[in-house]
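User: Fold this; tokens only.

Assistant: Input:
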Amino acid sequence: MTEQVKVPEIRFAGFTDPWEQRKLGELEKDATLYMGRGRVISAKDMSNTPGTFPVYSSSALDNGRMGAYGKYMFNQELITWSIDGGGAVFYRRKHRFSVTNVSGYIAVNPEKINCKFLAYAMSLAHSRIKFDYTVKAHPSVIRSLYTMGIPISLQEQQVIGSFFSRLDDLITLHQRKLELLQNIKKSLLDKMFV
């Protein structure tokens, strides 16, 4: 059941519409989103069918990328996450890719919810729950486990999603600069100290 919730402490100017508290399962029932799991794709499968399409799995490393494949399952914007809970929630821009069976995925109805916004809301919900070998983030589990505040205004969702996406881009840029400086420092240390 949908209920109104208190609006966040910080909002972008011009937005005054209320927010709703929604479970993922409710959003699925009203056709706002569709949840599923990937399929089994082994290293042998990828070796037998080489290609350039990314395969995403449960790892949080390298954006969850496990390898590349000559086939793909999706060519759309999606959210993926690790079923075992040890990984992270990822926003996947529209491109050709596959998702393994140890990952869940969500496709959204873009007329009802912004995919980037939902990915950030899910990421926060995911970070607040401890997953282990007994509690896994299967779609059947998180349908009732993840409850999130969602703006009624699709435009507000888009603004929030874009804002956090830009912050992530900035973080990535600075991480690359940090890695470059660390490599330069290591190289100089190797060459200056004998």
